[in-house]
């Protein structure tokens, strides 16, 4: 298949994608069927772009390279537009559901609080209660985050202090004449004492076992 034929089919897919995205933008919620159709066309467009790249490579021309690059940009724009529309429609749908839920709760609360002059007062009280609950949740979140940051900073500070102390100890030890020899003798003596203690314990165990 020639370069021009593949490009013609690709442009048809791009036009169809524009039409479907325009339809999706008019929806009140995510249309799964439209989204699937757009995905299928985008996959076909991606395959066609790969085919154009191979044809352009077989007959290198600067104009063809520009054409392929432009089709890539159009496909990326379509992918971004699809993701944006889906995110927006999902957010709008969730917002409507939340408002509907709040309205239902307000209606239930208002019905339970009587009618007439008490209706507005009950609704205002309910809204103040909800606002207070949200404020408390936000304040609690802020406190938790602040404590987490303080704990992290304290760990970092302690780690830095321990590293400095360890570095200074090693530096001081290296500057004292004979310190390495002294430390070696101490370690040797500890090992010797450990061996003697182990031998004594073993001998006692053997004596107890022998005379038992």
Automatic annotation (TrEMBL):
Keyword annotations of the record: Coiled coil, Golgi apparatus, Membrane, Protein transport, Transmembrane, Transmembrane helix, Transport
Species for this entry: Tortispora caseinolytica NRRL Y-17796
Statement: the UniProt record of this protein carries the keyword Transit peptide: no
Protein name as annotated: Golgi SNAP receptor complex member 1
Domain of life the protein comes from: Eukaryota
Family annotation (InterPro entries): Golgi_SNAP_su1
Entry's Gene Ontology BP terms: endoplasmic reticulum to Golgi vesicle-mediated transport; inter-Golgi cisterna vesicle-mediated transport; intracellular protein transport; vesicle fusion
A cellular-component GO term for this protein: SNARE complex
Family designation: Belongs to the GOSR1 family.
